[in-house]
Specification:
This protein has 827 residues and is α/β, with parallel strands linked by helices. The strands form 8 sheets. Strands 1-6-5-4-2-3 form a 6-stranded mixed β-sheet, with helices on both faces. Strands 21, 22, 24, 25 and 26 form a 5-stranded antiparallel β-sheet that branches. Strands 8-7-16-15 form a 4-stranded mixed β-sheet. α22 links the parallel β30 and β31. It starts with a helix and ends with a helix. The model has no long low-confidence stretch (mean pLDDT 90). Keywords: Phosphopantetheine, Phosphoprotein.
């Protein structure tokens, strides 16, 4: 092959700048730094057939072997574009070799690798390392080496795995670093290569992406061995389990809210009266009942009443906009609404637009002359229990339907893993439209314990919240990680004793290792549980129960809970190699029915489990991988792909790298426009203190190509969150656009109080004090209810959450503080 030097240089420039280094999954619990060595024979029948095939295709045997190696790397990395170090001639230096393993047959893949093979061999004398230095590429382009020439080589530099093929294709030899792979993992990698070679031999015209490289033993391990433990669950519904405890402990306190409390007998009696009022109005099996109340004891009675009457619970928050309530009722096919007088402002208008919907007030139902005895309504385990509406990617909410069997299994998983007993007090803190609110509400009732419903204004005042946990004897609590940070900040300022607290669960966002470490440094005797799951899978499916600070860079999601199966799969729903990234999917009792009256979106996310007959499977869209401990690790989502300057970019890949920067607690990357200058990537992160952004850029630059580096980094002590505890990316995108404008309109603080307040804003919002003007609006600058809590703490309670809401402009809030100081001085 004769080619000009310019074309050769351009070839290597494209190879080096394509970006993305192919990594093999780490699979070892051994921190040692030795080199392992495994060898396996290639069956003679396969070797003979492949040599003949190479002759028939008129390609070198090395190209056939390279195709198999590319397929293995693609399976291990989860990427269709892979890069390996390739030894093109005996004793040669490994050269970067980029290969595409997209759709097609084995033959097409071999033809592709033959072209790459030929160019690599022809261009092998070019000084590639000099070009790397010239281009400023620091990171090595590959970490695996493939040598089909029959000459063994050592693991050099950053190489973690080297595969050598013996002369005449008699054996495959794998050398590997033991801090990357253990012996069993290395044997599996050799097995994948043998499997690929066998598939090529069997049918070179077959589509290579329609088969698996995994052995029968590994498939069985992933489909059976990594499932949650099998636990027998009583064939009773939630309300029936509650009724057993009513019979056992009728006078025990079941629930407390403010200064009100109900015994098991009182709660059951009220729920039964409400249930009879519903059935008297014609509630049929699986009829949908919307419950629109505040988080109080009547809400608890209403939820139990819907279950007792055989209906389907549909939670709606009273403060939802009219259009949102109407759309929810319409989509769910709701005909009955159970509410209270103080919750009808927007509800009334919504119901008026839906002629077939009737409203029943809780207090009116109580006054009806109905029995308080348990109902005789049969409710099957496969009957629909509830519908929770979640945000949809199209902007239209989806109503996830879950059955009683999934709900009861999840409740028992919480009871068993969080240690909920007859002596427990479980805090109910989540808004009623979020699925986690349900287990917080009723789990204690299934074992004879107590539920403490904590008011929202108490939750928004960290000191009062901690006081309520203590005075209420709370033993089990669940919060989002961002609020756990608020709690720890409050404890640091005003240490409190929580002698009854036994377990804290966090959910809703990724739990950072640093936050978990801070928790155990502050509360060493209280277990921390990282919970993961989705509304469509009856809430949490994985629990990582910790009694000490984690040591991994990422806190694992933990193993599946009881009776739940979790797979990590490729696009064909086949399990990927252990440790490899893939989509997290769920199978079994936890999987709901789909989205109510939404067959199109149901069909996209719910399907039959191809590995278990008559079982539903849910595709989460989340990506993760298995860890050697048998636990799941969350890697992000793959639906956040964007294009910048023509390059296809996975936002999740940048965010994962950002989260590996030392001291970064949380991070998000957004796409923002800047005038007529196109779009750019902007990174937001939270940490204890603002970091050196140039050093951060260098850290990301060592792992990412230039076009994937954010053009700006913005520090916030806490990233803004949506109502359900997710990072508010829309807020961040708006902030990215508005930061320049904010600086242009800067009006500096005038008084001493304004300057002090600007400093406090800077502390909680993560904005330089010099960027905060006296006319700035707290919530327009990224403030949230949680950051308002932090502001109140930072100002030693000089202002309250309500003060910040009423006076969000800095100058106005400063004037309020000054007026109070003056009044205090005159009194």
């Amino acid at each position: 092959m004769t080619t000009g030097l310019g074309a050769v240089r351009e070839h290597w420039r494209e190879v080096l700048t394509a970006g993305g280094r192919t990594s093999v999954p780490r699979w070892t619990l051994d921190a040692g730094s030795a080199v392992g060595d495994h060898e396996t024979p290639v069956p003679r029948v396969i070797a003979t057939a492949l040599r003949l095939l190479a002759e028939q295709l008129r390609v070198p045997l090395s190209s056939v072997l390279l195709a198999a190696h590319a397929k293995v790397l693609a399976a291990l990395s989860g990427e269709t574009e892979v890069c390996a170090g390739y030894v093109a001639e005996p004793g040669g230096t490994p050269l970067p070799c980029r290969l595409s393993t997209g759709s097609g047959t084995w033959r097409e893949l071999i033809e592709h690798t033959a072209g790459i093979d030929a160019r690599t061999l022809a261009f092998r004398d070019f000084p590639v390392d000099e070009l790397r230095a010239e281009l400023g590429i620091v990171a090595p382009p590959f970490e695996t080496v493939f040598d089909p020439t029959g000459t063994d080589g050592d693991l050099a530099g950053d190489t973690v795995l080297r595969l050598d093929v013996s002369p005449d294709l008699e054996t495959l030899r794998l050398r590997f670093r033991t801090e990357v792979l253990d012996s069993e993992a290395a044997e599996r990698v050799l097995g994948y290569h043998l499997s690929a070679l066998a598939q090529i031999r069997a049918d070179v015209t077959a589509p290579h992406r329609e088969t698996t490289l995994l052995s029968a033993a590994e498939l069985k391990l992933q489909l059976e061995g990594l499932a949650g433990p099998h636990v027998e669950v009583p064939d009773l519904r939630c309300h029936e389990l509650f009724q057993r405890n009513v019979a056992r402990h009728p006078d025990a306190i079941a629930a407390v809210h403010g200064d009100r409390q109900w015994t098991y007998r009182e709660l059951n009696g009220r729920a039964n009266r409400l249930a009879r009022a519903l059935t008297a109005r014609g509630l049929r099996r699986e009829g949908v009942v919307a419950v629109v109340t505040e988080r109080n004891l009547d809400w608890m009675a209403a939820v139990l009443a819907v279950f007792k009457a055989g209906g389907v619970y549909l939670p709606i928050e009273p403060r939802f906009p009219t259009d949102r309530i109407a759309a929810t009722l319409r989509r769910a096919g709701c005909e009955l609404v159970l509410t209270e007088p103080g919750s009808t402002t927007t509800l009334r208008k919504a119901v008026e637009s839906l002629p077939g919907v009737r409203t029943l007030f809780v207090d009116a139902a109580y006054e009806e002359d109905r029995s308080e005895d348990d109902l005789d309504v049969a409710v099957d385990s496969g009957q629909l229990a509830y519908i929770y509406f979640t945000s949809g990617s199209t902007g239209e909410p989806k109503g996830a339907m879950c059955e009683h069997a999934g709900m009861v299994n999840h409740l028992h998983a919480k009871i068993n893993d969080l240690g909920i007993t007859e002596e427990s007090v479980v805090a109910q803190v989540a808004p009623q439209c979020f699925d986690i609110s349900l287990w917080q509400l009723v789990s204690a009732l299934l074992v004879g314990g107590r539920t403490l419903l904590i008011e929202q204004d108490v939750i928004l005042d960290a000191d009062r919240f901690l006081d309520r946990l203590g005075s209420g004897g709370v033993s089990v609590l669940q919060v989002v990680p961002s609020y756990l940070e608020v709690v720890l900040s409050a404890v640091a300022k005003n240490p409190v004793a929580l002698p009854d607290l036994r377990c804290v669960s966090v959910t809703g966002e990724a739990l950072k290792t640093e936050l978990a470490q801070r928790w155990f440094a502050t509360m060493p005797d209280i277990k921390l549980v990282n919970a993961y799951g989705l509304t469509e899978t009856s809430d949490d499916t994985n629990h990582e129960v910790m009694d000490r600070a984690p040591t991994r860079e990422r806190v694992p999601l933990g193993p599946p809970v009881q009776n739940v199966r979790v797979y990590v799969v490729d696009e064909r729903l086949d399990p990927v190699p252990l440790g490899a990234p893939g989509e997290i999917v769920f199978s079994g009792v936890c999987v709901g029915r789909g989205y109510v009256n939404d067959p199109e979106r149901t069909a996209r996310a719910f399907t039959a489990d191809p590995h278990r007959p008559d079982t539903r499977l849910y595709r989460s869209g989340d990506h993760g991988r298995w860890l050697p401990e048998g636990k799941l690790e969350f890697l992000g989502r793959r639906d956040s792909q964007v294009k910048i300057r023509g390059f296809r970019i996975e936002i999740g890949e940048i965010e994962n790298t950002l989260l590996q920067v030392p001291e970064v607690r949380d991070g998000a990357v957004v796409v923002a426009g800047r005038g007529g200058q196109g779009t750019r990537l902007v990174a937001f992160y939270s940490s204890r203190d603002q970091l050196d952004h140039e050093l951060m850029r260098e850290h990301l630059g060592a792992a990412l190509p230039e076009y994937m580096l954010p053009s700006a980094f913005h520090w916030r002590e806490q990233l803004p969150l949506t109502a359900n505890g997710k990072i508010d990316r829309k807020n961040l995108a708006a902030l990215a656009v508005g930061l320049d404008a904010a600086e242009a309109d800067y009006d500096e603080p005038v008084t001493g109080t304004e300057e002090r307040l600007a400093g406090a804003w800077a502390e909680v919002l993560g904005i330089r004090a010099a960027q905060i003007g006296r006319r700035d609006h707290f919530f327009d600058r990224g403030g949230t209810s949680l950051s308002a809590v932090k502001l109140a703490i930072a100002l030693d309670r000089a202002v309250s959450i309500k003060d910040v809401a009423k006076h969000p402009v800095l100058a106005d809030l400063a004037a309020l503080i000054d007026s109070r100081s003056a009044a205090s001085g005159n009194s």
